[in-house]
Amino acid sequence: MVLNYDTAKAIVEEAHRAWSAGDIDAVLRTYAHDIWFQRNAADSSSAPLVIQGRPAMETFLKSVASKAPGMATIESFQFHSGIGRSRVSYFLQDRETGQSLSGTYRQIVMFRGMLISRLEQFHDAARLAAFFRLIEAKSVHVNSR
Asked: Backbone dihedral region of 118: left (phi > 0), alpha (psi from -120 to 50 degrees) or beta?
């Protein structure tokens, strides 16, 4: 199999399909063992979130899914010179409170063979951080009763 537009898009779509199905193991199968992930910071004074390696990604993804599982679909995809660029729609919902967040983010995807080796996500980071602060605060409040 040759990495071209169709195969690159299929790999990225599979990662998002697996996330949406709650299948973290299937998400991880789309990643190289030494996957490098970066998500932009909530503000310019903070460092971005950086995760390296499949075990660390598993921990991160399971943590997010345990709090607020969600869905993600690709709205648009481009592939040029071995690099994929996606615009992704997503939805997260807090398991305890039902509070939800939806939006879009941009994604840059690099490949090694037929696996994702580097993944950069650009969210409305302040909004995403606020959502997780809100659900964590409500969770602490609910559990302290």
From this structure: beta
The CATH number that applies at residue 103 is 3.10.450.50
Residue 117 structural domain? 5-143
pLDDT digits (tens, 9 = 90+) for 25-50: 999 999 999 999 999 877 777 889 99
Predicted model pTM = 0.86
As for how many domains the chain has, the answer is: 1
Q: Tell me, what DSSP letter sits at residue 40? A: -
Q: Is the dihedral of CA 67, 72, 78, 82 positive or negative?
A: positive
Phi, psi for residue 48 in degrees, rounded to 5: -70, 160
Query: Which token pair is 21?
Result: 């199905």
